[in-house]
Amino acid sequence: MPARVQTGNTLLGYWALQLLGWGFYFYAQASGEVIFAGVSWSKASTLWGVVCLAGMGLTHLLRWTIKFRDWLALPPAAFVIRILAVTLLIATATYLLTSGISQAMHGTPVAPITSAFYQRLTVAGQLRNQYIIILVVHAAWVAIYLAFALQRRRYHAEIRQAQLGEALQAAELRLLKSQLNPHYLFNALNGLRSLIADDPGRAREAVTQLARTLRYTLASGEEDVVSLERELEMVDDYLALESLRLADRLRVERDIAPEARAVRIPTMLLQTMVENAIKHGLAQLKEGGTLRIAAHVVDKELVLQVFNPRPADTAASASGGVGLRNSSERLRLLFGSGASLRLDLSQPGQATAEIRLPL
Amino acid sequence: MKALVVDDEPLARRELRRLLGAFPSVQIVGEAANIDEARTRIEELSPDIVFLDIQMPGGTGFDLLTQLDRVPRIVFTTAYDQYAVKAFDVNALDYLLKPIEPERLATALRKIEATPSVTTADAPLDQLFIRDGPRCWFVPLPEVSVFTAEGNYVRLRWGKELPLLGRSLAALEEKLDPRRFFRANRSQIVNLDFIRQVELGEGGWLHVQMRDGPEIEVSRRQARLFRARTTLG
């Protein structure tokens, strides 16, 4: 569990630096006060001991706030304003505490070490310097802490970025392979080889259609959405090639409302639906059947439907397929919860895939 | 050689016909577009060789093989299912990738001509195609030592493998060569070539020790028949 060990190490480092820093400040102030102001060690150590413990507590509270309110994730301006304000706030608190204890122990808000160093200044000037020194100490604490925290955040972000990049590449490769659909591609090429001898004119047309579908498939990685019109052109090419293979087993009906054509849909969405309808439906039937594609705009929604016959005995799970699950996921990512994909297998021998997209 | 072309795509059948036209030794006797048609054609025409697509409506090429008693030489033709063909464990089958390369077809045909099939229509069964879960085998029956009934199925003892056959023991017995296989008791058929030793048991039963390990009891009813067979044969 490397992550936990690292958190442990980080926490240990934090407390070491915290104790070292405040311990050094305590020792410097208390011993300075004994040497330069002639105050007894017990009095000096009481004053600075309380001040440093309070400083440590306040800065620890600051760290807790930065961490658990996730300040490092804030936009720069909001982050800087918060940090400056809080630094000022806790420095003021420590300053008031210092002055208060001095007043109680020595009868003046100026700590003995401050008056020893700035003997020629007025009380107001001494207090100002006392405040500035405490402010500088707190600012230094904040600067050191942020240097560590920001660097660590950047380092983890880079690692995460690298891991994300690798996962994304693997996913893209899988997607491309599934979209290219080798089974379909090699069958199409085989049909084409036959057609070259039988009907060269049709063969040339088929090569163009195959090239267009491949180009569209490859481009789909870059374009998330496309007009239904454009997707339908691709589906027509695809169906033309499939009807070469399936011959009279594939019959197609289209019912596309004119106002639906301009609607933008996820690329390859209709294509995946049609491919599934053929693969799990029509191609499994000896007699084939009629594939029907319908697109209408109803109540500010695009309703896209693919109807196809299927073998009566196939289980519902077998007809779903990875393709439709991926489509459903993409639909949700691109259009949110307003969009839906439903595969209706309630009627034996019939499948209906329906997609609804908000306009 | 009589050949049958099985593929659901008309263009694919035409293409294969054209390719086979270059081989005068191959005579295409028929075509089929699905496995039901294919089974009928195979029974009618008894081809020597079947070019068989894998993905077809109504059942795969593998499904066809499990339904056949006498399996002709098979060459699978596939666009992308070569992994399914390679999954065969023991007897490798030929396969051709579509689009089919003429040189590869020539090689496959040469291989088949080099090992002529001796199967005739009424000869007893000499091999079985078995699919047990994800694994497939062509099992040469002379290599099977014992058939044991398991409900409506039959477990074969074939070397180290114990594949399950989707038929009943009674149905199988009718198809087996009676000179080689003997019904030892209600649930077992033994291969006589695998018997090492026979001892007399109690109550007229016979105790048979097989070469590959198992001990089989021959029922009293069958024991007399067994003695007659083994001493005469």
Q: What is this structure's SSE topology?
A:
The complex is a heterodimer of chains A (359) and B (233).
Chain A: H1 2-37, H2 41-68, H3 76-106, H4 112-117, H5 123-180, H6 182-198, H7 200-219, E1 225-227, H8 228-246, E2 250-256, E3 264-266, H9 269-281, E4 289-298, E5 301-309, H10 316-335, E6 340-344, E7 350-358
Parallel strand pairs in A: 2-4
Antiparallel strand pairs in A: 1-3, 4-5, 5-7, 6-7
Chain B: E1 2-6, H1 10-20, E2 27-32, H2 35-45, E3 49-53, H3 61-67, E4 73-78, H4 82-86, E5 94-97, H5 102-114, E6 127-132, E7 135-140, E8 144-150, E9 153-158, E10 164-165, H6 169-175, E11 181-185, E12 188-191, E13 195-200, E14 206-210, E15 215-218, H7 220-232
Parallel strand pairs in B: 1-2, 1-3, 3-4, 4-5
Antiparallel strand pairs in B: 6-7, 8-9, 8-12, 9-10, 11-12, 13-14, 14-15
Helix pairs in contact in B: 2-3
Description:
- With 359 residues, chain A is α+β, with helices and mostly antiparallel strands.
- In chain A, 69% of the residues lie in helices and 13% in strands.
- Chain A is built from 10 helices and 7 strands.
- In chain A, the strands form 2 sheets. In chain A, strands 2-4-5-7-6 form a 5-stranded mixed β-sheet.
- In chain A, a hairpin with a 5-residue loop joins strand 6 and strand 7.
- In chain A, helix 1 packs antiparallel against helix 2, helix 3 packs antiparallel against helix 5 and helix 8 runs parallel beside helix 9.
- The radius of gyration of chain A is 37 Å and the shape is rod-shaped.
- Chain A starts with a helix and ends with a strand.
- Chain B is α/β, with parallel strands linked by helices and 233 residues long.
- Helices cover 29% and strands 33% of the residues of chain B.
- Chain B contains 7 helices and 15 strands.
- In chain B, strands 2-1-3-4-5 form a 5-stranded parallel β-sheet, with helices on both faces.
- The model of chain B has no long low-confidence stretch (mean pLDDT 87).
- Chains A and B meet through helix 6 and helix 8 of A and helix 1 of B.
